[in-house]
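User: Please fill in residues for this 351-position structure.
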């Protein structure tokens, strides 16, 4: 009898553990995810290597999941920036989260545009990259790549130079603005907008099926007292987002959003290597911001220190090369493509 009771209790406990697991990101927001642990660990390494002070982690917000929606065709100006005196302008898209009311969506899109333009003017990009390799038939084969970047603007611009050229709402409730400033407006003497961005990326495994983890964030405050934060923890299969406006947490619409572009896409495989990509499933802003940070992280590093660190870890990898860099760079979006619900972005450095 006692054995039957113990057996029943064991089965009940197993079922409770099994069915308590849930892959819905909206129901995972209160738990610590593996990607967050990996991000925190590598971020601490970054702080040690660059003598940076760690920031306090933020609380997760409430999230919701939406069902499939009809695809939205983006207007041509979203992918082909066309404004007066375009060569002498720095342009960006400001995009809100899906599902907001029009007032908050517009406010969020505008402050995000201001934040990105501040970063594009000129930023200090601190980066630490670890490349793990294995020996295979006498050659080093990359097995894992981990990178952490902190991006903080050096320059700024007077708010009077900020101009919105286009504005539209998508069918998903996203406000999209095309905004810009003259290149000549970038100047470090205007402390009106403060911005900080971080980008963490880790890839491990086979080339055709890698395990991918990423965390990226943006904090902005402007001259009008508006603040906006955005953080995404992303794996290959799911995403967890925290987003706020003026300190208030906003519920994020997870969904299977789809977008089409009026502009045809014709690029060779070699040309695509110059682009960063992002999935559009969870909204236009998430893809645009992630692709922008990836372009900045991919930029040629003019000042860096490379260290060889052998046999300092598990036997899974035989070699570790660590690159630590700090550069001051400015950027300008050059081309945007959208194909098969994937966002492609290419940026050039401002000379």
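Assistant: Residues filled in for all 351 positions:
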């Amino acid at each position: 009898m006692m054995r039957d009771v113990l057996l029943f209790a064991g089965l009940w406990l197993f079922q409770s553990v099994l069915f308590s697991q849930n892959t819905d990101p909206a129901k995972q927001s209160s738990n610590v995810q593996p990607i967050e642990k990996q991000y925190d660990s590598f971020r601490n390494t970054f702080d040690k290597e660059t003598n940076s002070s760690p920031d306090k982690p933020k609380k997760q917000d409430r999230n919701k999941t939406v069902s499939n929606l009809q695809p939205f065709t983006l207007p041509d100006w979203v992918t082909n920036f066309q404004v007066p005196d375009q060569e002498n302008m720095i342009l960006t898209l400001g995009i809100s989260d899906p599902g907001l009311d029009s007032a908050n969506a517009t406010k969020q899109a505008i402050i995000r545009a201001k934040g990105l333009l501040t970063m594009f003017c000129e930023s200090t990009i601190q980066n630490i990259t670890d490349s793990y390799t294995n020996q295979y038939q006498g050659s080093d084969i990359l097995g894992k790549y981990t990178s952490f970047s902190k991006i903080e603007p050096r320059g700024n611009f007077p708010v009077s130079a900020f101009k919105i050229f286009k504005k539209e709402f998508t069918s998903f409730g996203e406000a999209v603005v095309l905004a810009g400033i003259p290149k000549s407006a970038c100047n470090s003497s205007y402390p009106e907008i403060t911005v900080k961005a971080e980008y963490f990326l880790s890839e491990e495994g086979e080339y055709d099926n890698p395990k991918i983890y990423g965390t990226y964030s943006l904090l902005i405050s402007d001259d009008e007292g508006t603040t906006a934060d955005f953080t995404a923890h992303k794996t290959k299969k799911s995403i967890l987002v925290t987003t706020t406006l003026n300190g208030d947490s906003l519920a994020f619409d997870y969904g299977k959003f789809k977008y089409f572009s009026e502009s045809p896409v014709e690029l060779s495989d070699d040309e695509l290597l110059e682009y960063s990509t992002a999935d559009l499933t969870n909204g236009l802003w998430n893809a645009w911001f992630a692709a922008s940070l990836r372009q900045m992280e991919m930029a040629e590093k003019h000042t860096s220190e490379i260290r060889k660190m052998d046999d300092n870890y598990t036997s899974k990898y035989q070699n570790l090369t660590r690159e630590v860099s700090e550069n001051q760079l400015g950027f300008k979006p050059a081309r945007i493509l959208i194909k098969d619900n994937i966002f492609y972005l290419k940026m050039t450095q401002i000379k």
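For context: The chain has one domain: 24-349.
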